[in-house]
Specification:
Blueprint (H helix, E strand, L loop, with lengths): L2 H57 L3 H11 L4 E12 L12 E7 L12 H8 L4 E7 L4 E11 L11 H4 L7 E2 L15 E10 L1 H51 L14 H35 L3 H15 L5 E6 L5 E6 L1 H10 L3 H9 L6 H11 L1 H9 L4 E6 L4 E7 L10 H25 L4 H17 L11 E8 L7 E7 L4 E9 L3 H19 L5 H15 L6 E9 L4 E7 L5 E4 L4 E4 L18 E4 L5 E5 L15 H12 L4 H16 L8 E8 L2
Antiparallel strand pairs: 1-2, 1-6, 3-4, 3-5, 4-6, 7-8, 7-10, 9-10, 11-20, 12-13, 13-14, 14-15, 15-18, 16-17, 16-19, 19-20
Helix pairs in contact: 1-2, 1-5, 5-6, 6-7, 6-12, 6-14, 7-12, 12-13, 12-14, 14-15, 16-17
Length: about 700
């Protein structure tokens, strides 16, 4: 059903219901008013007839009756009017009310009826009443419903009959309602001498016709109003909801992979704001997808480079092209800050050779490597390195980013202006930094391959690669309210295959990943670096752990050139609700220690390792955490650790440690676990990397 129909139809139904209810009330009220009017009119007529006929009935002179009968007969809607002398006798018809055969018609609107005996129960009951009696009945001669009014003719009337409302006078179905003359308080009713009965009948046909016409008119007015209202509301809601429908259609197209969708909403209200937000979201999503594709293509290109010179040329060309940058240069130097290699465009190439000898310039980059805000970075660069900044500006350099490992800067990458004079944003700097970090891994790999034959250079390259490997790991444990997190990573070789990371997400969320790349050494580290870059690029744009791993798997599978794969457990923490949404891609199951039961269980969620098959849709699970509980993430290095008798440490021993020390803080838990693990393995070295991430829920 269309959105505008969902709004307009219920409202029309409501209006129709209210209209019917109001019309019903109005019609009923009008019916009662009309019936009350005709009843009062009939009471007035029959009362006047009885009063004006008193003299003629009691004197027996019928000439006194002709005038009031004729006057009443002329009234509108009068069916008949007559006066009976109840003491006069005659020949009774079949409808005689008693054997006395009394009730002679003294005067009648139909002269042919005068002199006849008119005996029926209505006249008889009129004698017993103190006032007017009215009956609604069908009158065969006229073939219609009538109101038949009867009133006794008194010889002596002490009190005037009290007039009652129409509801007291008339009751449907033909039952008689009497207007009895009430007695005064503590005073007996006066004795009345009754000699005759006055009768007047009014036709209900005009009244019924009027009511029917009124109902038809109200019905057609209501139908016309409903149709008009339906047309107006449908058009109005279609106009109001049109922007929302445009947004919905655009959202469907984005879901189908068309990330360039935009909407034009000409409105200054909340819908206009929603349209602007949608376009902003679409722009960011489109840019994010382009960045992911560029990152994937960039990593694939780096893997294909055969030597350092070709790699640096590729890095320079790909990075400049990725953000449409006019010029740039890349410089590498060793631990003694001796120039190692320079690649660049025009004057930047020559100038970077001179910079290699400027210790002040290099020292500044070492101290400022952790600056993440682009505006602060550029302002400090300009103010603190004023001379160098001015010289770089003359050559067209706008920004310089250090190439660094965990502990030191090993090179610089300078950039000229962006095409069209566009300024570098925070997003641009972060994106370029991610590409450069991937480039650092690729540079190290090329260096290791080219210098493999020389032991001294080999040692340098291994040290360099190890620092790069370490730089990929978080420098500090995250500080998130309600959680105590502590980590430990012990590589089995100089460059390991284990990896863990923490990613700050929107609205206070935190992504936790722990992974193990197949193989060891530089290839594993390079593959791990590519995986890390993809995870950090994708995680911020995906709300669930399963969608994140599904996208990473597709990209890794598309770009893989070897049989390397990676197992990964990725979880998203909601610090507000204390929930953990997680997905497992072939990794060991984490352990969940519950304080109330003093026992642990596994977080079961299974899927294939990343990079093996595509497409691969991963599923996620969720668990709600409580204070005192502990989650243990780990790689298989801990359960596959062996003692001197080649006996595996195994899962049962790990479970026992969690049950034994799960109540401790995260750091204390890891310390106790490592003590018992070291006692178990003795002098036997670890054969695989060992990584542990302990997360304690504190509040």
């Amino acid at each position: 059903m269309k959105l505008y129909a969902k709004f307009s139809i219920p409202l029309v139904i409501l209006v129709v219901f209210v209209s019917i209810l109001l019309n019903y009330i109005i019609i009923r009220s009008e019916e009662e008013r009309l019936y009350d009017y005709i009843n009062k009119f009939g009471v007035s007529l029959v009362s006047n007839l009885a009063s004006n006929s008193e003299l003629g009935v009691f004197t027996g002179n019928e000439t006194y009756l002709e005038k009031p009968i004729k006057a009443i007969s002329k009234e509108k809607d009068v069916v008949f009017a007559f006066v009976l002398d109840v003491e006069a006798s005659g020949v009774a018809g079949d409808d005689a009310w008693n054997v006395k055969e009394r009730g002679k018609v003294l005067a009648h609107s139909d002269q042919s009826e005068v002199g006849k005996v008119y005996s029926d129960s209505y006249s008889e009951k009129a004698l017993d009443a103190q006032g007017v009696t009215v009956v609604r009945r069908f009158y065969p001669p006229a073939g219609e419903d009538i109101l038949d009014f009867s009133a006794p003719i008194f010889k002596e009337v002490k009190k005037k009959p009290k007039k009652e409302s129409f509801d007291a006078l008339l009751e449907e179905g033909g039952e008689e309602l009497f207007f009895d003359k009430p007695a005064g308080e503590n005073e007996p009713a006066a004795k009345l001498v009754k000699k005759g009965v006055a009768r007047v009948a009014l036709s209900l046909a005009p009244l019924q016709t009027t009511i029917a016409q009124m109902k038809r008119k109200v019905l057609w007015v209501t139908i016309s109003m409903v149709i008009l209202l339906l047309v107006v509301l449908t058009s109005l809601f279609r106009f109001i909801t049109k922007p929302i429908m445009l947004l919905a259609d655009a959202a469907k197209k984005i879901a189908g992979g068309d990330y360039a969708q935009r909407v034009v909403v000409k409105s200054n209200d909340a819908i206009g704001t929603l349209g602007e937000s949608f376009n902003y979201m679409s722009d960011n999503l489109n840019q994010s997808m382009k960045r992911m594709e560029l990152t994937s293509n960039f990593n694939q290109t780096l893997i294909l480079a055969n030597n350092l010179s070709e790699l640096l040329d590729t890095i320079l060309a790909e990075i400049l092209n990725a953000r449409k940058i006019n010029s740039g240069a890349i410089m590498l130097f060793n631990n003694q800050r001796n120039l190692f290699v320079v690649k660049g465009t025009s004057e930047l190439y020559t100038f970077h050779k001179a910079l290699a000898k400027n210790s002040n310039f290099l020292d500044w980059f070492i101290q400022s490597r952790n600056i993440s805000d682009a505006q602060e970075y550029l302002e400090r660069f300009e103010n603190e390195l004023n001379n160098e900044y001015n010289e770089l500006r003359k050559l067209g350099v706008v920004m310089t980013i250090p190439l660094h490992t965990k502990d030191e800067v090993i090179g610089l990458f300078s950039f000229g202006a962006m095409a069209g004079g566009k300024e570098y944003s925070d997003a641009d700097i972060k994106f370029l930094s991610n590409l450069i970090q991937s480039a650092v891994i690729a540079i190290d790999n090329i260096i290791l391959r080219e210098k493999e034959a020389e032991s001294e250079i080999m040692k340098f390259e291994l040290e360099f690669a190890k620092k790069v490997q370490e730089s990929l790991l978080p420098e500090a444990n995250p500080n998130i309210q309600g959680f105590d997190i502590y980590t430990l990573c012990i590589p089995a070789k100089d460059i390991g295959g284990d990896y863990f990371d923490f990613i700050q997400l929107n609205e206070g969320g935190l992504g936790i990943s722990i992974a193990d790349v197949s193989g060891k050494g530089v290839p594993a580290a390079l593959y791990m670096a590519s995986t890390r870059s993809l995870l950090r690029s994708i995680a911020v744009d995906h709300q669930t752990s399963c969608s994140t791993l599904t996208r990473i798997n597709d990209l890794l599978f598309d770009e893989r050139s070897t049989n390397t794969f990676v197992t990964m457990f990725y979880a998203i923490i909601d610090s507000k609700t204390k929930t953990l949404n997680y997905t497992n891609a072939g990794h060991t199951f984490p352990l969940h220690y519950k304080d109330h039961s003093k026992a642990c269980s596994y977080l079961i969620n299974a899927g294939l390792p990343l990079g093996i098959a595509s497409p691969q849709n991963y599923n996620s699970s969720s668990v709600t955490l409580a204070p005192g509980e502990l989650i243990l993430f780990y790689t298989d290095g801990i359960v596959e650790a062996m003692n001197e008798e080649d006996e595996l440490f195994g899962f049962e021993r790990l479970e026992a440690l969690v049950n034994k020390y799960g109540h401790l803080a995260a750091k204390d838990f890891i310390d106790k676990t490592m003590e018992e693990l070291m006692l178990f393995v003795g002098e036997n070295p670890f054969q695989d990397d060992l990584t542990i991430v302990a997360m304690k829920i504190t509040s």
